[in-house]
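Reviewers of the previous submission asked for a worked example of the structure-prediction workflow described in the proposal, so we include one complete record here. The input consisted solely of the amino acid sequence. No template or homolog information was supplied to the procedure at any stage.
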Amino acid sequence: MSNKKIRVLIVDDSAFMRKVLSDILNSDPEIEVVGTARDGLEAIELVQKLEPDVITMDVEMPRMNGLEAVKKIMEIRPTPIVMVSALTKEGSEITFKALEYGAVDFIPKPSGSISLDIRKIGEEIIRKVKAAAKAKVLRRRPIIRRETQPTVTQQKPEVEKKAPTTLPAVSDLPYPESKLKEMCVIIGSSTGGPPVVTEIISKLPKRMPPIFVVQHMPSGFTRLFAERINQVSVLNVKEAEHGERVQPGYVYIAPGDYHMLLRKRGDSVYIVLDNQMPKVNGTRPAVDVTADAVANVYGGKAVGVILTGIGRDGAYGFKKIKEKGGKIIAQNKETCVVFGMPKAVIELGIADAVLPPSEIPKAIVKFCKEILG
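From that input alone, the workflow returned the following structure tokens.
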């Protein structure tokens, strides 16, 4: 293995944050901070001069914010970028836009723009920078969004959604709701996943079985993630709530820091959220936990989709779904930011299809038809 260190550029308008992030990253023998920048404009200059392997990028900065910097860097010298984001509405919005423009991951600051306690997430920062160093930088075309979108809640399932600007890539499933509720789709993803999940769901038709999404994402971001997908989908996309009844035509996003489980009562399925269970595969929510619940509740009447991400989360649960007769789709290596989770599923020999995201919606519908008959 090469002894070459991962060369990192830190971009943050706070001198304190630049110093602490430098100390954290330099504490790892495999990482070297080669420069720091105070804003996006300075970052663009240093990217060309220093040619770093990874960039940590603040979100809200003067002169040029993190989003504008990501867009420009992806044009002039595509580089793996990890956003370092405050849990503000604006910070979260910019973070998701940055992921759509090609940033590979993000780290939430624990207590605002200047987080005096940033050291407590030092291990996570090091882990994500190392993962980013292995990432394949992909140029992305941001998905067009409508300006306004009704918020969909369990209390008002009758809310009418406006038609998205992009129509689904495939036609509706020709089954009544009573039939659609017999099966489900589960999508699992991690590093590089948010834009891919959004692309896939935006192309699915309105008449679909319930869809469960487990995206490795911290608390405070999953609700906005659901709202953003809801803007471009004909399906009702929402952050899952404890105790709610599962319905066809809905997409349920596992909340950050909660495992999403399922319980069947009578002929209905209900969501159970648990933040007391330990992390699985180093994360909560974990794909394996929800996939295991899907296998137990739906048996072989499930389609599993595993997307870009580091590690093996999902391999165990998807194997169980496959053994019960379900269908499995894995994202192909060429389009993955990190070919970890799909690789683990493919190596188990359980993938029925290995596809780019553009072809996954049609495959989901095809397998749903095969399962429902």
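The chain has two domains: 6-133, 177-372. We consider this example representative of the routine output the project will generate in years two and three.
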